[in-house]
Backbone:
């Protein structure tokens, strides 16, 4: 399918690896030039070089922590006007409800709620002026089906979801489309670290931890960053203009619900 976004420009946050990288690749494949971001410069430069070589699009890199004011300022300065924004950052650590103090909640809110909101506030007005824009926020299936050990993530992402529900409808008349993509378990470093948590806590091997989790997914496997990126690119395409403020699960059927 022709996505109709060749020549557009995208900021893809937290994109040297994993789901953000999958989104960057799929957008580049559609002819979109990129501003890519991650904290670690080495992996970021390597990812950017591969994408330039593979798709022939312009890629600007900004090594910065997107959850901080300074990091975002550097990224926004390099990005300038963009047509497409994909927000993303690392997820908070797992734990028990008794573990978390105010500072832990503030860090989770900064990363997974306030950073995406700040990026939208900075970039959506330009999209509205130009009459076209696409925003995809990478959240989590925990928005629809909270995961008990990810209480910090559940809390912060619920806040972002509420914000997007209203904002997406306020900006839609100007041609700006905002949606959230909700990953279930995907084969990335994040999934490995969550499997490691289970493996350590229960004294089982990593393979056993992964097999147990795969058994809970009707598709019986983890998703791939490529599949996730393809869905993201569609939501950033010319075809998504009537999809407003939705929370779209990519979870292999793991969340057992009809709505
Ligand atoms: P990942 O494989 O660990 O990749 C994370 C990427 O984000 C890396 O490029 C990392 O590079 C970058 N990053 C992390 N923190 C950053 C920050 N503060 N500023 C800028 N870049 C940052 O993670 P993932 O699996 O793709 O997950 C992406 C998001 O989806 C996370 O919020 C995660 O909680 C959520 N999610 C993932 C899954 C899953 O199964 N994979 C399921 C549900 C939700 P640096 O470390 O160099 O910064």
Residues:
């Amino acid at each position: 399918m022709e996505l109709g976004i060749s020549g557009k420009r995208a900021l893809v946050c937290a994109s040297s690896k994993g789901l953000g990288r999958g989104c960057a690749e799929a957008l580049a494949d559609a002819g979109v030039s990129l501003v890519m971001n991650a904290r670690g410069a080495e992996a970021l430069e390597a990812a950017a070089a591969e994408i330039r070589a593979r798709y022939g699009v312009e890629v600007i890199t900004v090594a910065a922590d997107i959850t901080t004011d300074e990091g975002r300022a550097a990224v926004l300065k390099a990005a300038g006007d963009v047509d497409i924004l994909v927000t993303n950052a690392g997820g908070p650590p797992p734990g028990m409800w008794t573990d978390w103090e105010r500072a832990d909640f503030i860090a989770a809110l900064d990363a997974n709620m306030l950073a995406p909101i700040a990026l939208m506030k900075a970039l959506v007005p330009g999209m509205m002026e130009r009459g076209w824009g696409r925003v995809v926020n990478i959240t989590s299936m925990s928005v629809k089906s909270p995961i008990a050990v990810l209480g910090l993530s559940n809390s912060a992402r619920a806040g972002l979801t509420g914000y997007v529900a209203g904002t997406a409808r306020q900006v839609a008349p100007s041609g700006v489309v905002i949606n959230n993509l909700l990953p279930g378990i995907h084969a990335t470093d994040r999934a490995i670290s969550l499997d490691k948590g289970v493996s350590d806590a229960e004294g089982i091997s990593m393979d056993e931890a992964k097999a147990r989790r795969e058994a809970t997914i009707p598709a019986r496997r983890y998703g791939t960053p490529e599949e996730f990126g393809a869905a993201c690119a569609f939501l950033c395409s010319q075809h998504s203009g009537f999809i407003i403020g939705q929370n779209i699960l990519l979870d292999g059927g793991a969340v057992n619900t009809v709505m």
